[in-house]
Records
---
Amino acid sequence: MSLTARDLLQRLANDAGLPYHTIARKVNRMMAKGMGLLESIRDIAEEHGLKENKYRIDVEKIVQEAEQILREDYTQTLMISAVLGQMVEARGREKFPAPAFFAFIEMLSRISDARRDTKSESSTEIEDRTTRIIELMTTLVSVLCEWSEKGVVGVADDCPESLKEMARVVFRKTKLLQGGLWTCISCGDIVNVKETRALMCNNCDSRISRSDIHERFDQMSGRNRIGYGRTTIDENED
Ligand SMILES: [Zn+2]
């Protein structure tokens, strides 16, 4: 089983004897019409007389690998978070899709006990890990969630039980975002998307010094974060 959409498309392209970009374009078109990633792939496989059940993605393994990367090194995780945070605010081709970012935030909440080591990764290593996380997260949400031409419209039928809660959170937050609302990555409050700064509500943004990335990360994934139900409330700052 494949771990990323790219691997799976490559495998299908090889088996069908077509160039990768032909398959990728076809899948993109089908997905733009509201078909799911796996559904589109199965359709193309069938069209080419290939066994459709050969093309699957192991979402549980995606989560395992992403968790492993995020637990590897604290500083590296901070850097990845910072890059993804910038990308989700970017426009155009560099943009990291919001549903994938919401899944990433959920992943962070699972690793709040990650150790802080002092091992220093090279920037190339961090770059590679960031690229990998981007691929894993975008693939994950395209399989966990039900999609239409309007974006995420629910939890996919074949989403495993263990990941349904994550899919529900991604769906809920994406729906809010479509309605112009954003869930502050620090306190979890729902605010107007136009009033956010660096993905946070105004209150959190003014409380947290932007230059202090460590503190900002703690607010995103550490024990003070209360917005996602998995961490306990240490103090109520309101
Ligand atoms: Zn906030």
---
Amino acid sequence: MSGRTRAQACPERTCVGCRQRAARPGLLRVVVIEDRCVPDHRGTLPGRGAYLHPTPACLELAVRRRAFPRALRVQGPLDTGELRQVVGQTDRKT
Ligand SMILES: [Zn+2]
């Protein structure tokens, strides 16, 4: 955690997957509804939100780190099926 900045002009959020900061419009807001991670496309759903790059790689990282329960202050595990549909499947080419 580095110093806190109060730059309101360009709101940044941290991706719960790769932990990199990005401008809010570039991130997908995620809220939890009844143990399910739900994409909040319009940013209007109530409650605590987590932010994620809408990419399979970042979703995968977030799931592996159990970042959603931590970020959303809920007991895991959470169903991320809907998020997977939104960001697409991870390419597993080896
Ligand atoms: Zn990311």
---
Amino acid sequence: MSMRKSLAVVAFAAPLALVACGGGEKEAPAAAPASTTAAAPVAADAGAAAKGSASIVGKISFAVRTRAEIDEAARGLEAAGVPMLREPSPLAGAGGGYGLQLVDPEGRLVELATEMESVVPMSREVARPVGVTHVVLNTVDIDRAVAFYTSVLGMRVSDWSEHRMAFLRCNTDHHSIAFNQAGWTSVNHVAYEMPSIDHFMRGIGGLKRRGITPLWGPGRHGPGNNTFGYFGDPAGLVCEYTSDVAQVVEDQWLCRVWRRTPELSDLWGTAGPPSQDVRTHMAGTPDPGVFATHPELLGVLSGSTS
Ligand SMILES: [Fe+2]
């Protein structure tokens, strides 16, 4: 199944606000092997939950190329016993399109979408994001999470950070999603792509002029080689400006296990170690996801991907 590298829309649905950033399309990568489907993330919706100011992931949406791939995915999901909250059908949300929605083993709502409306790319002269490039999720079972996203969604593991983080790709970007072993299921952070390191730094400067100081950064990570500058949004969600993520050549890339040392998490030595404050922000609060409204799905996937 082919994948689409487009990172088209990201939206954070706070109680009464919707902020959307549009981005351009990138070159489509080669087909994913032996999977139900594979895709590129187009959106991560997070919102302030009824439980207060806690940030939760409402939906993680991935683009696929065609309706036929959506339909094929549905057949694969059904065969694998993966619950779908939406069978293949037209999508009613912003951007329209056609897609399906499934539930992962920790209750996250995952959408596969195609035929979304395009937007006119914004000028790249201005230092603002061109799309969402990755989402990092806290998981209670990193092996189960990796097994599900590789075997069901066809993603591939680019690198590990010891046995604490796993970086997964679905296109040439080193990671489009990553999992962090944690005490509960939650969103760790959402990363926005800046077109260049100059845009990245000017973007951080723009935030600082608005009184928003990075929680951590700027710096450059070892795994993925991407720049990072983390800051909090008004709902408490950790967002990241990033650029220059490593590009994977499939027949040349060797997955490695990185040691978790200050020198490797902060290659430039500019950011220093993450503070307890940023760690607390990244831990978030327990997110029951779809299980809050569909408790009957709890345990449906236990053992199905391991
Ligand atoms: Fe990140």
---
Amino acid sequence: MANYVHGFDPIEQLRLKEQAEFLAPMVYKEVDFGGCKNLLEVGSGVGAQTRILLEKFPALQITCVDSSAEQLAQARINLASFGDRVRFVEQDGCVLDLGACSISDSAINKAEGASSTRRSPICD
Ligand SMILES: C[S@@+](CC[C@H](N)C(=O)[O-])C[C@H]1O[C@@H](n2cnc3c(N)ncnc32)[C@H](O)[C@@H]1O
């Protein structure tokens, strides 16, 4: 995904982290994944939002999907402390194929509907 508009350099990766932390009180003010076990995050980048969600909802397990190996490599580092609560899939979210996994078909169907213009977490 070489044509991603913001690029993947370390300054941009840090910007994503700072942006997520700054916006978290507003973004997650009315978001409650307390009743969810598994969450699918398409376009998860370096895991900046993922970290906030994992901290906010301790029962949640998150599957991070990103088409960039560089972003996922940084996400693995950033989220290492969460162990098996997070897994990483390098794939184009527009043609998502997670194979056999614990996320329900309905969640995957919703994910397939999430185009690159609307990257949002999906849970069951
Ligand atoms: C602006 S970053 C956002 C990362 C994260 N959601 C956050 O807020 O910190 C967008 C991410 O979407 C990924 N992306 C763009 N198009 C994608 C696609 N079709 N499938 C999977 N990932 C995609 C990029 O590689 C990038 O890491």
